[in-house]
Structures are given as structure tokens and as C-alpha cells.
Amino acid sequence: MSLVEEIGEQRGLLLARVAEAADSAALEQVRVGALGKKGSLTALLRGMGQLPPEERGAVGRAANLLRDEVEAALAARRDELQAAELDARISAEAIDVTLPGRVRPIGTQHLISRLTDEIVEVFRGIGYQVVDGTEVETAYYNFDALNAPPDHPSRSLQDTFYVVDRSGDAAAMAGESDVLLRPQTSAAQVHAMEERELPLYILAPGRVYRRDVADPTHLPQFTQIEGLVVDEGITFGDLKGTLEYFCRQVFGPERRTRFRPHFFPFTEPSAEVDVSCGICDGAGCRSCGGTGWLEILGCGMVDPNVFGHVGIDPETYSGFAFGLGIERIACLKYNVPDLRMLLEGDMRFLRQF
Ligand SMILES: [Zn+2]
What we know:
The chain is of the alpha+beta class. It has two domains: about 5-90; about 110-350, Bira Bifunctional Protein, Domain 2 (BirA Bifunctional Protein, domain 2). About 40% of the residues lie in helices and about 20% in strands. The chain starts with a helix and ends with a helix. The longest helix is centred in the N-terminal third of the chain and has 40 residues, at about 55-90. The protein has helices at about 5-20, 25-35, 40-45, 55-90, 110-125, 140, 170-175, 185-195, 235-250, 305-310, 325-335, 345-350; strands at about 130, 135-140, 180, 200-210, 220-230, 255-265, 265-275, 295-300, 315-325. The strands form two sheets. It has a seven-stranded mixed β-sheet with strand order 1-4-5-9-8-7-6, with helices on both faces. Bound molecules: zinc ion. Zinc ion binds near residues 277 and 292. The site of zinc ion has 8 residues, from loops.
């Protein structure tokens, strides 16, 4: 067989193999078999040097043409195969976008948390700082420092949860424990008066505990916000103005407030604050028990004895304090008839807010 014939035969063979290659890997094998170091076409081209000079021109041209033709065929087939492989991958990995999505319910803030934040924001807007307290406290910070001596009724086992040592300590088991679940957040205020620089404009929100049986108007655990101001020249007028501002911000600008004298051990004078009923606007209706007013918080001027416990000079400084239950405010604001509904976790009820 002449070399030119051999080139013709190789041509037919190689182009057929290129066309038959079923995937990229098979095509690569064809390429190596023809154009690799030990490839058939490479060997053919290498043999060119041994030809007599008069044959070299024609055979060389034919061989080079064949190499170009095979390279072009390889490139074209490679493009074809890659496109086909990409199509196959796209259809294999395709996601059916017509399937309905899985809806995950989005949580929202509980009414109590939201209202707490709302009230904190009102006071933050007029310069108050938030202080944190612990839910387990000592009797000193809860009662003694707040002017409630050991014989004060609120200290009794009937009103407060004491943390009793069950290890066998006879005194602790007899109910003389000094550690309790805080019945109000006031202890945080005592800590703040001891630790912080004056003047103080602080707010103490958090959970508190009382030995009450849960009923429409009582809960054994609820959320309280207490406020305390200590500065020079603070008067009852400042207290009134601050709480009137607060009531209008939370209940609406048209609501009126009234202050009724009351007694608390840690304030003197003390008052309870009512806001005008939002349903009858003061005329008297079933929600307000016919009085036209709703009781919302307790307040008063800090008793000088309380200042004495924390080393603040009552001749220079004066202040006021107030406390309110968030659950109660929530019920008044949204006409919820029973405090327990706020804790039952019934989504049909909670979703309304
Ligand atoms: Zn009313």
C-alpha cells in the first residue's frame, strides 16, 4: 500500500471513530489514539522524514491536511457531546417549580412582650434607662430596703413564694428563708440606687411572682414595669406630668387620668392612678363597673426612709416611683375579659394582636 493510500484509509477510519464516540471520555480516547505521542497519525507524520525527497512534498501535504481535518472533526464532535451532556444534566437536576411551596408559619411577638417594649419605648423617649434585676432575690432588697419591716403583711408566706432549703436546715424549713421569688421588680431599683450615679431615671421591667390563685383578675406570675426617678427638686407635679404623658401615649390622647390617695410602704404620699374608660369615656358602663374610670397603676413620692437604706441624702434628693402590671394594661387596652387568656397559648386569641 502506498503512503497516500494509507493516509486515505486512516482518514476514513479516524473520521468514523470521531463520529461514533458516544461521550466526551470516548472522544478523548479517539484523540489520544490518533494524535497522542503514540497515536497512529503522529506515527505517520513522524515517518515522513524517511521518504525519498521527491515523494515528501505530496505525501506531507496529504498528511497535514488529514491532521487538520481530524482536529476539526474532534472539536466539532466535542462541542456536540458537551451540549448534549449539559442538556442531560439540566433535565436530571431540574426542580419542578409548579409544586406548591411549604409554608412555614411566621411567629410574632406575644402581646405582653410587645406591650412591654411599647411602654419601655415611651419612657426611653423621655430619657429613662432600663435596668435588669434577678427573679430570685433576698428579703432585704425586696422588703427591708423598701421600708417593709419584718412584720409587714406582704412578707407573709401567704403572699410571697419563699425558696426553702430542703437539705434539712431546720430554720429554713420552718419558713425563715431569706430568699424568695420577687413579688415586684422594686429590688432592681434598690440595686440601682446603691450602684449608679445620681440622678436616676430608670425603668425595671420583668416577671414577678405572688401567691395568688389564677382567676380572671389575678395571676401567680405576671409582668411588671416599675419606674424610679431620683434627682434634686423632684415634686409630685413631676410625677403627675410624667404619668399623664405615659397614659396618653399608651391609651390615646383623648384619655384623662385621675390620682386617688393610697398607701404603699415605700412611698409617701402615694396614689393610685385611674385612666378614663375608653368605652364610655367616663360616663360609666359595665367594663368600668359604672365608675367611668379604670385603675392602671400605683405610684408615689419615694419615702425618705428608703433613701436612708441606700445612703442617699433625702435633704438634697427627692424622687418618685410607679409600678404597673402589663397583663392588666393589656386587658384594659384590648378589652380582654380574663387575664388567664394571655397565658393559655390559644393561637386563635393571640393572633388578633
Ligand atoms: Zn366605662
